[in-house]
Design goal:
The chain has eleven helices and four strands, in the order αβααββαααβααααα. By secondary structure, it is α/β, with parallel strands linked by helices.
């Protein structure tokens, strides 16, 4: 029986919650494109494996239901709600030694600006201005770079390590999604299914999903429907930081990238 038919019976009902140890992790600093990737992957699971759209943000349940290794997404000590300073990061990633890790990264300048709007317009976790935010040990760009440095030094520890750049997702979305599916063990997905998922999770499509709350999930819901800066799907623009930072802010960020030798191609 074809794999798609085998799982078609799950289409009308949501898979039950599972309690199994995660073996595959997709990690990222907040505002690095995680929701975009999750929606693309979720679309594949609903179309290729016949699973329910209600579980689109419950990857562990869906991967187990599809007979794949259990996967989970995590911000790995960087969640804005934790408020952890860069000096308080765990320096070793030994807890992932028996696991497979995909690290999703994005230009720290774009990340820090997007995090500012997340913290001020969606979560109300910061009351200062953007100029202080980017310089903060708890929120700023040096914290993002430090997180990348730690993973660059620890990437040999997991059973496997895969890097996925937000910028590559923009330039080559089909290949980036294919790489993510290969990481998950879903190697039999067709090119047409990948094209469908990329279209389904396009910026305009996700913006419309968020505005209408069509997925009925808080992970894709604006802080204020009338405030475009409070949307989860806000800009989706590479280099958009220049629209919000002044010359001094940009110089500060670029100095941090160079002084700290930000890995993954962001110090150049």
């Amino acid at each position: 029986m074809p794999l798609k038919s085998l799982f078609a019976r799950f289409r009308k009902t949501s898979p039950p919650a599972v309690d199994v140890l995660t073996s595959h992790w997709i990690l990222s600093y907040p505002k690095s494109g995680r929701t975009w990737l999750r929606v693309m992957i979720g679309r594949i699971f609903t179309q290729h494996f016949g699973l329910s759209e209600e579980q689109i943000f419950d990857e562990k349940t869906m991967t187990v239901a599809a007979g794949l290794p259990p996967v989970d997404f995590s911000h790995d000590e960087t969640s804005n709600s934790e408020g952890r300073a860069l000096q308080d990061f765990t320096e070793t990633k030994g807890k992932y030694a028996e696991n497979h890790v995909m690290l999703l990264v994005r230009d720290p300048r774009d990340v820090v600006v997007s995090c500012f709007f997340q913290a001020t317009r969606r979560k109300s976790r910061y009351e200062g201005d953007i100029h202080d935010f980017i310089r903060s040990d708890t929120h700023g760009i040096r914290k993002i770079i430090r997180y990348y440095q730690i993973w660059d030094a620890n990437k040999h520890l997991p059973a496997s390590f895969t890097l996925l750049r937000y910028e590559d997702m923009h330039e080559e979305p089909h290949q980036s999604l294919r790489n993510a599916l290969n990481f998950l063990g879903a190697a039999g997905v067709s090119d047409s299914e990948i094209a469908d998922a990329v279209e389904y999770a396009s910026f305009e499509s996700m913006k419309a999903m968020e505005a209408s709350n069509s997925l009925k999930n808080k992970k894709l819901r604006p802080g204020d429907k009338n405030d475009p800066e409070s949307y989860k799907v806000r800009k989706g623009k590479i280099g958009g930081y220049v629209d919000y930072l002044d010359e001094a802010d940009i110089a500060y960020c670029e100095q941090a990238l160079q002084e700290m030798q930000c890995p993954f191609g962001y110090s150049e």
